[in-house]
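TA notes. Do not distribute before section.
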Amino acid sequence: MGEYVQQPTIKPRRSLLSKVLIGSAALVVACCGLSAIGALFAPRSATPTPTQSPASAVRVVDEAPHTSTPTMPPATAAPTATPAGYISKSMFGDKWPLSVEDGVVQCRYGSHVVFVAGGKVYAVNGIASGAMKAGKEDYVDIREIWVDDARPGHEGLKISITPVIDAGLKLC
């Protein structure tokens, strides 16, 4: 009599590429939200029709074979948000210390307060200026756009830049 030998169960293995894609997708979702993942898995020829949003034209890829291609639900358009640190002349009035109308103040490296406007990154506080002068950072000197104080008796002085520094330090 023959013996019955049970064959081991073979689990399907994911390829290295699929593991990398899944890991990348998880990272994109964690970083940028679910709607950003569509660009990773969209077929090159996918174009939305006039009645579809770009997100609804994206194919969802999964490992299991299936007969129909599921699609993501239409994404609602998010309103354009003001970036964190956005400041402008209209917010400060006469106390606006810069010659540009607006920009974004940022905190870099935990203590460098910088102002970004017109494609340039200006060193605002002493720590950022020190890094710029030492050649450690490629910042531009804020004095290029820092306005003189026009009040009588303040000749040679600048309008206080403290409100800009304070706005940047709130982000640190």
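Switch to the second chain here.
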Amino acid sequence: MNKTPSIAVLKKELSYRSEQEIIDFCVTLIKFNRENKELLNYLLIDEVEKEVFLNEIKITISANFLDINFRSYHILRKSVRKILKLTKKYIKLINEPIKELTLLIHFNQELISCLPKLKNYPSIENYFISNIKKMESIVAKLHPDLHYDYINDINELKIKL
């Protein structure tokens, strides 16, 4: 089997193609995979109004936390994992550190408001702790002027733990 070509090679090949061929390629890609369809939708439509899209994601995350079923620990853990997976999917689409921080902070705030005693749920507490570590590593890479706001938000979350 052939080795997968680099992005540079693919870009070069695309430059030789007509506009209609590129559109056909895009349609084929979005038929192939749902993630490709979501990414293309974001790039074409939602990227223009990033703040509106970000607020819609926050609303979706909050609504999912309201729908959590508390019947059993297993179902609760599974629901939180599902919301975290959804959050990470959106983070992958947006691909901006500040927006990633915003979504992770929102996820953790919703998690704490939903489950104020995280210590009673060890695996869910681990999700929370790993998110805190992830946020701290992102903040470390940001411009120093932005550190203060995000570090305060992270510290507030740590206090609530």
